[in-house]
Amino acid sequence: MSKAVLVAEQEEGTWSFLERHLSDDGYEIMRAGTGDATLDLVESVRPDLVLLGVEVDVCRRLREGEPGRTWDRGVPIIVLGQPMADAVDRVRAFERGCDDFITRPFLYEELLARIRAVLRRVEPADTDMIQAGEIVVDRRTRCVTVAGTFLPLPAKEYELLAQLAIAPTTVFTKQELLRIIWGYRSVSRTRTIDSHACRLRNRLAALTETPYVLNEWGVGYRLMLPAFSS
Q1: How far apart (Å, rounded) are the C-alpha atoms in residues 105 and 80?
Q2: Which of 9, 47, 84, 198 lies 20 to 30 A from 219 at CA?
Q3: Phi, psi of 192 (to 5 degrees)
Q4: Every domain of the chain and the residues it spans
Q5: Inter-residue contact 101 to 94 (CB < 8 Å)
Q6: Long-range contacts made by residues 123-129, C-beta under 8 angstroms, separation at least 24?
Q7: CB atoms within 10 A of CB 190
């Protein structure tokens, strides 16, 4: 699955350059031209990484969070520093929580290497077996068991369950799930995720009393674990 990169950049030439080359290297690219737009997209789309070329204080706001807003405060951030940036600017950016800093003008090959390095650092440890309460997902065979009983699932329902089970206490937004599982690149009003989640919930209900797939209204979906698994 390709990684989604949010490019927070006002300068048209830099945006066009990054959009073209990062797309060619297999990344899904989206753009924000202001700090507020950056926060909105990080909350609604949940990118895998942010290239921050707008005001650096956005980095602090992302890390600290804001009342009434929900996003991944740990989203990797690489600051695209201005040509006049010096050591003090770098230190301040890191103090605000960025993962890396590169000064303009930069070589694309160096930026790409830094993107890959940061993404590797935050990549969760891969495991073939995922367990969430009574649910066990074997990613090698794509088999799911619930309370010891094999549960056959269509492809997208399997992928939805596997994604939720990776982080069962995390609420995944609908846009995030649509991007990860269905490959949607932009905000969509489709009911696809809701219909698949409903069918998955019904299949699980036939094997367990726990209503595993929960809809967090206005946000997305998560798994609810039974009390004995916490």
Answers
A1: 9
A2: 9
A3: -55, -50
A4: 4-122, 129-229
A5: yes
A6: 124/166
A7: 11
Architecture of domain 129-229: Orthogonal Bundle (1.10)
CATH architecture of 4-122: 3-Layer(aba) Sandwich (3.40)
CA angle, residues 135, 136, 142, in degrees to nearest 5:
120
What the block records as the tokens of 7 is 């490019």
Radius of gyration of the chain from its Cα atoms, rounded to whole angstroms: 20
DSSP state of 226: -
Residues 6+ apart with CB under 8 A from 43: 69, 70, 71, 173
Distance of CA 173 to the CA centre of its chain: 9
Which residues share a beta bridge with 78? Answer: 51, 100
Three-state secondary-structure class, residue 28: strand
pLDDT tens track for 113-145: 999 988 887 776 566 889 988 999 998 888 999
Return the residue matching tokens 């949940």.
46
31 Cα distance to chain centroid: 16
pTM to 2 decimals? 0.63
pLDDT digits (tens, 9 = 90+) for 77-117: 999 999 999 989 998 999 999 989 999 999 999 999 999 98
Q: How far is CA 118 from CA 6, 48, 174, in A?
A: 14, 10, 25
User: Which residues are CB-neighbours of 35 under 8 A, at least 6 positions away?
Assistant: 8, 54, 55, 57, 58, 61
Residue 225 tokens, joined: 């674990």
